[in-house]
Amino acid sequence: MSDSYETAHDIEARLNRLCGDATSDIVDSKAELSADVPICDDESIMADPGVKQHIVRSQSTDPSSSADTLTGSFRCRFEPSQNLYVLHVPIYPPMKSEPEVDAICDQDSVVARTTQAKRFGLRIELKRSSDSSQSESVLVEVTASSI
What we know:
By secondary structure, the chain is mainly beta. Helices cover about 15% and strands about 40% of the residues.
């Protein structure tokens, strides 16, 4: 058994625990998946400090709508004396039009501002207003929607 397999197995086991699945076995085929598998919610996944990002891309199932939505959570770390953090979010495949973007931080001392929203990616600036002599971890929730 190689080290890379063990690492992948450890990661899979940790994600299974976060999603509420008590088993740590890796699913070897799609046939083993069932409706009984718990749906992971974003908060439980991001509760693990080792998870740096979680992105979900969805499209409307309504044939009359072509709505395309990307939702993501990103853990960003400010180093001491760093007041600006630039978050780049790639979008692939590109959306059909430039998206409307909402970005919210979990810390009141950090403001998120979308400085560029293109079909192929986002640029979001996080600006810290509090004491910058200490490092700080911030959770950013991003939603990008294209119609």
